[in-house]
Amino acid sequence: MLLFKVSLIGVLFASISFCSYQTHTLNLLISLEAVMLCLLLFSFSISTMFGMSSHLFLVLLTFAACEAALGLSLLVSMLRLRGNDLVTALSSLSFCAQNTTDKSSLSVY
């Protein structure tokens, strides 16, 4: 029962941190990982309390690992493209404006 309560408190605090720290992409990814770990802990505590199998735990663990790998690879590619990991730099309008103003790469042969 203690594990159940700890996981619910963890989900609450991780969700609050996800909503409040929205300046850098790395902060968002770490908050998402905290939410996933607390949900894993929650599903594990439910499965042990009711004596169910832990198939859901393994599926969530797989999704958490895939989400972490995909998030970090997107963060690295964004850092290489933009040079920073600010959430405000993710606007698609600034991406299009950045590519259309750079006409030095367009050359006529």
Automatic annotation (TrEMBL):
Keyword Transmembrane helix applies: yes
InterPro entries documented for this protein:
NUOK/Mnh_C1-like
Membrane topology qualifier: Multi-pass membrane protein
Q: Where are the transmembrane segments?
A: 29-50, 57-79
Q: Where in the cell is it found?
A: Membrane
Q: Does the keyword Mitochondrion apply?
A: yes
A Pfam match: Oxidored_q2
The protein's UniProt keywords, in alphabetical order, are: Membrane, Mitochondrion, NAD, Translocase, Transmembrane, Transmembrane helix
Its predominant location is membrane
Q: What are the GO cellular component annotations?
A: membrane
Q: Which domain of life is it from?
A: Eukaryota
Q: Please report which protein family the annotation says this sequence is part of.
A: Belongs to the complex I subunit 4L family.
Name of protein: NADH-ubiquinone oxidoreductase chain 4L
Specify the species: Aplysia californica (California sea hare)
